[in-house]
Design goal:
Elements (H helix, E strand, L loop, with lengths): L11 E4 L10 E4 L4 E2 L5 E2 L42 E5 L5 E6 L18 E2 L2 H4 L2 H4 L3 H5 L3 H6 L9
Antiparallel strand pairs: 1-2, 3-4, 5-6, 6-7
């Protein structure tokens, strides 16, 4: 057999069926990680490593209720528990992502202006009805799309 026709990278050479109309008399069965007529092309390789980055404690949700009068335009909340995320929920189920911090910082003052553009949009506003009715596991793989499409105006959705 001609060396140029040999399977490479550990590929197994298999004769083709004589009744098939093929120009080659042999096919290569490539091992994982290789493709091509002679297994000459290295496949893409994705290596995922998992490190223990989160302790086993379950996330804690702590809620506080505050009332703000129609004449007020600000509110002060004192909070002693560590936190990474502040979400504001109004009575009519409208949400705002108010604050995110990767690393908790103690004794800081956070001054945040809440405005209509910071509202978390519902998936009904971002996807069609067919998508919204899909199982949550099927939907998750498309959740990056609104972030890409509305990257400058969308801070959160639910």
């Amino acid at each position: 057999m001609d060396n140029n026709l040999r399977c490479q990278n550990g590929g197994q050479c298999a004769p083709t069926d004589e009744h098939m109309i093929l120009t080659r008399k042999f096919l290569c069965i490539c091992p994982k990680g290789y493709i091509g007529d002679r297994c000459e092309i290295v496949d893409n390789k994705i290596i995922l490593s998992f490190q223990k980055i989160i302790n086993n404690s379950t996330p804690m949700r702590i809620t506080t209720f505050r009332t703000i009068s129609l004449t007020q335009n600000s509110l002060i909340i004192y909070w002693s528990q560590p936190f990474h995320l502040v979400i504001i929920e109004l009575l009519n189920k409208i949400y705002y992502l108010a604050f995110i911090q990767k690393t908790y910082e103690r004794s800081t003052t956070i001054n945040k202006m809440i405005n209509p553009s910071g509202r978390c949009r519902h998936i009904n506003e971002l996807f069609n009805k067919t998508f919204v009715q899909m199982n949550v596991l099927r939907r998750i793989k498309y959740y990056h799309l609104p972030c890409q499409k509305y990257s400058s105006t969308l801070s959160c959705f639910f």
